[in-house]
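Predict the assembly for these two chains.
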Amino acid sequence: MTVFCLVELDGPAGAGGAAGVAEASLRAITLGRGLAAGSSSTGESGAVGGLAAVVFADPGSEAGPGLVADLAAYGVTDVFAVSGIDGYAPLAWARVLQWLVSDSANPGLHASPDESPYPSPASWGHAVVAAGTERGNEVLAHLGAITGLPMAANCTQAVDNGAGAYAIVRQRWAGLLLEEAVLEAPVALLTVATDAVAPVPAAVAASATVHHVAPSVDGGDLAVRAVETPAGAGGASLATARVVVGGGRGVGSADGFAPLEELAALLGGVVGVSRVVTSEGWRPHTQQVGQTGTKITPDLYLACGISGAIQHFAGCSGAKNIIAINTDPAAPMMTRADYAVIGNLHEVVPALVIALRERAASAG
Amino acid sequence: MEILVCVKRVPTVGGAITLTADRRSIDTKASGFTISPHEECAVEEAVRLVERFGGSVTVATLGPAAAEEQLRACLALGASAAVLLETEPGAEVGPIATAAALHAVATGGAGSGGPFDLVLLGNEASDTGDYQVGIRLAHLLGWPAATGIKALSVDEAGISASASRTYRGALETFALELPCVVTVKEGINLPRYPSLPGRLRAKRAAITRVPGPDRAPAQDVRMTSLRVPDAPKKQATVLGQGAGAVPALVDVLVELGVVS
């Protein structure tokens, strides 16, 4: 079988700079590689274990060879670079994926003239994998709708049992619960949880071939299309931040966040908050970490005055390290953290800010 | 403006999730039920639009008879009609069959009061998290869809909508012609509390009950069992008390590489 992985890129699209592969997509590719390698199905061509990446960008100009190399390091053997679709159009993206896995759809699609013929996708097989992001879930849901195929969201494992049957494990309740399930379909549509599968490069890097495809997409499929604008101050993304300084009920007020902002700036991170903080109107909902907010996967989550409701853990359990500051040593966040400071955040955080400033000054 | 809002009855999850003995569902003996925060916001958004444009809000759910409780909660918030697509208690209906059942309601069947100008759903149900019912429904209707929306505005004429969300730190805005399907997320608004007259009205309101899909839905993902993931067996290293812990805290930050 061949596993087609929808690749999302880091950084604001269209910014012109070099864009890397989004970490969430690397996680998806890692799961896809395992699925392809462990496959007991072979396509008509007899090929086993192909791993193809589908990029809606021109690696020739936008991301350069670095993007292809990054994908090859994860074992990708074929990169389909799709051009001609201006911006993010979920239904159009889904149509292109549909075409890539079936030879009957959309005859208007073609490889560019200078392209050597690549194997007929129909003789390949037979999974489409995307990151469990807003875009990944959305595109695969469209693909499921236009093909009538089932789609399994936020998988953490997938095994091909042959004959179009897959054993999967997927997240429910944003990961608080795991579902073991069977998926039977000629083409498996899977998205991959953004906080559960570690991104791991292939043991041996592949040599990736780039196929340029320029689809002619029906206008109706482009009717819903994203217009992107920078989102306000800084625009730093909570979902991709390496350091998140979290604030909860213990912060006590909107004004109480100033030291946390300062600390986040010193650590090169961003502020995230618990649900009570947004319900109280202390901070905007865009900063909420949790099941109904953002799932974070930082190297460090420094949780200040957050007791740790189960829905909050659904958003932060992907953090590599958790440091909790709380007056209550028995708070769930304190017992599930790697490091704990027992105390009032209004005392600890300003003292930490001062210590970090002094450290920076003496080093400088 | 006629708006349909689709919601789902789910257990209220508190401290920890406990499963039934057969590991096929959550033990709800001691829990209450609710709809997800995303869906509360969908109801609120619909009520606000109707307050501005006139028209009415219909709320629909696919679930057991007990899901009337959630429909009445939505009626108390300002919906004026409710449809229950009734399923067997404990039956789990997958996203493909759910979308098909909601399609019948959205096209004005089942005494729903359609046709509708707008269908709102939560971005995902908080329990199964399938992330697809809204889009599948949109395809069945032949309508455009936008998902994960945290800001929605409809033009004065009620003809087109602008829907936006954040994606990787940028704002993505989609323009859609009505009728359309929009799935929303918490944060799009701050839902109101039900008023007393609203609650009284909801108590008396008639709910349209129609049979939902049976137990054997279309080919879909088939759950075999559920499990609670192992909580990481961590023993937190206590760095100290109060400001006295700061030197040890700085050492840890250096060790983790976030401070040079």
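The first strand of chain A starts at residue 2 and ends at 7. Residues 2-222 of chain A form a domain with the Rossmann fold fold (CATH 3.40.50.620).
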